[in-house]
Each structure stands twice: as structure tokens, then as C-alpha cells.
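Support request, please re-run this one:
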Amino acid sequence: MYRITQVLSVGPFASLERGEMLRAAGVTHILNVASGPNELIAELHGFKEIVWKPLSDSVYIPKHAATDILDTLHRMVSEPGSHVYVHCAAGQLRSPNVIWLYLIAVGISADDARNWIEERSPVASPGDRRLIGPNHVLMAQKHGFANFTHTRPEVAVPFHPIPEPRSDDRGSP
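Re-run finished. Output below.
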């Protein structure tokens, strides 16, 4: 799992085996954009909500699917205290592109959103031309401006982990 912002994480398929790690990391909601259905069930596995919005990894994300997914993701991240894990099969193409479009929709520049994702998830390919066409950025900007307002500014704040103290940092002068 790669934490992109204070509220958004991305990674590979949320399998039964991965569920415990996701809960331990504080994930409350899961958005699956893989072609296969969820293995985890919210009520049985301790999550508030798990939603499946299948996408293909070989064609542009259709506009109607993109706006539906962005609306679902916005609803999830708008819930106080939520931490949303967006996944596909490998966490390389579909899920990073969904997060990239969402960050653009909430006002982050396409370049900054790409940098945030690539810096935190070395396997991710946000803005990939296999899924993103020439009008996706403008569509995300317009849709976000018309529909998204936030009371949680941490949704659009890049995640910076607290560094672990080194063994030689024991307070000696």
C-alpha cells in the first residue's frame, strides 16, 4: 500500500490476505477499480464501505465511468476520518489514474498530482495514455469545480511519513 495523501492510498488488489494490513493501516473505505469483484466484504472484514467500479486496463476510461468513480471517491473521502484505499489488480495503472484524476478534480495541477503519486508509488503510471485521453484532465477539472467542495483539506495534502529514528539518534551531543 502506498499512501498518496493524508486520506488516499493506492495499491494492488485488496485480497483477503491483504485485508488485515489495510485495517492496521487505518483504511476505512475501499474502492476497487479492477476487472474482478471484491474478495473483502465490508461488514465481515471491518471496513465501513467497499465499492467495485470495474475499469478496463486497455482502453480510455469512459467519461460516464470517470465521473461516476470520481463521485464515489469524493463521497468516501468526504466522510470524516476516512482513509480510502483505491486499488486495481497491481496498483500500477487503473487505480493511480483514478487518484490522479481525483486530485486534479479537487484543484491540484496535473503535474503536481502525477509527482505526488510517482514519488510515493514507484510502480504507478498516473496520466498513462492507455487510459487517459486528451480531454480527461479538463473533464476532471470541470466536474470537480461543479460538484466537489471540501471540508477536509487533508484530502489534497501529500502524505509525508514520519521518519523512524535512526539507532545513532539517541540524543547524544
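The chain is about 35% helix and 10% strand. The chain has one domain: 2-149.
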